[in-house]
Amino acid sequence: MAQSAVRRPAGHRRTVLEMQNVDKTFGGDVEALRAMSLAVNEGDFISLLGPSGCGKSTALRLIAGLAEPSGGRIMWEGGHEVGDLGVVFQEPTLMPWATVAQNVWLPFRLRGQSYNEVRDRVLESLRLVGLDQFQNAYPRELSGGMKMRVSIARAMVTNPRLILMDEPFAALDEITRFKLNDDLLMLKDRIGCTVVFVTHSVFESVFLSDRIVVMAARPGRVVRELTVDAPYPRTEEFRTSAEYAAWCREASNALHEAMGEHA
């Protein structure tokens, strides 16, 4: 599908959710997050970039409602406790006894909807990730990249407003990772969602994001935010451009500064 290069609209966009001075402490004395504030706006692709132990995954779990903040609050548009979202974890977390289509059907199944009711939506989601011909396959028959595509299809099948992704491509080889980065941007454009993406990779964060939130550890907190003002769609031409290299250097410098910061 041909697409023209577009920049994000400069005007005001609605805030999907806001983290306001959020703290998270484990076991009474392990401070995972301190005073983390973040506004996620409609249409954003935000990468949380930082060293291991800086609270990136903890922040995602709090947003998803899988854990409660120790302090501060998370505000969703409309006052909901947890908004309309999909989650992709680092591991595909597929049910080994279920087919590809049955795995993608899971979010609807949990809502009490039969497979026949949503079959077309399941197959369309698989078609978007290039796996419609594998609907009757089982996870053991798939490569690592194909399993992650199934996980992405499952997260997107309900057309959520927000998708949370916790280092989904970290275990994949570089060629597969690049391909899935390309596909992810295409899918985001197709369904018009907002993405919060956790990564250790400077290169991945620059290629995917319009906002990079750099975090420092001990305790986890936001120390800098970078705006990648490059048009979408982003292609191999962007990946090999001087512009991309310059943003990667800036993000790398910010990450090194964050790794040197202590409370």
How does this structure look, described?
The structure is a single chain. The protein has helices spanning 56-63, 100-110, 115-128, 144-156, 174-191, 202-208, 236-239, 242-259, and strands spanning 15-26, 30-41, 45-49, 71-76, 85-88, 162-166, 194-199, 211-216, 221-227. It has 263 residues and is an alpha/beta fold. The longest helix has 18 residues, at 174-191. Residues 1-10 have low confidence and may be disordered. The protein has a six-stranded mixed β-sheet with strand order 5-6-7-3-8-9, sandwiched between helices. Strands 2-1-4 form a three-stranded antiparallel β-sheet, covered by helices on one side. The chain has two domains: 15-84 and 161-259, P-loop containing nucleotide triphosphate hydrolases (Rossmann fold, 3-Layer(aba) Sandwich); 95-159, no CATH class. The relative contact order is 0.18. It contains eight helices and nine strands.
Shape: globular
CATH topology of the largest domain: Rossmann fold
**Low-pLDDT sequence parts:** 1-10
What CATH architecture of the largest domain do you see? 3-Layer(aba) Sandwich
The number of helical elements comes to 8
Question: Radius of gyration over alpha carbons?
Answer: 18 Å
Our measurement of the CA-to-CA distance between the termini, rounded to an integer number of angstroms, reads 49 Å
Question: Mean pLDDT score, rounded?
Answer: 89
The CATH class of the largest domain is Alpha Beta
CATH homologous superfamily of the largest domain? Answer: P-loop containing nucleotide triphosphate hydrolases
Q: How do the strands of the widest beta sheet line up side by side?
A: 5-6-7-3-8-9
What are the secondary-structure elements, in order, as H or E? EEEHEEHHHEHEHEEHH
Residues in β-strands, percent: 15-25%
Q: How many domains, as an integer?
A: 2
Major beta sheet summary: 6 strands, mixed
Q: Structural class, from helix and strand content? A: alpha/beta
- Which bin fits the share of residues in helices? 25-40%
Number of strands: 9
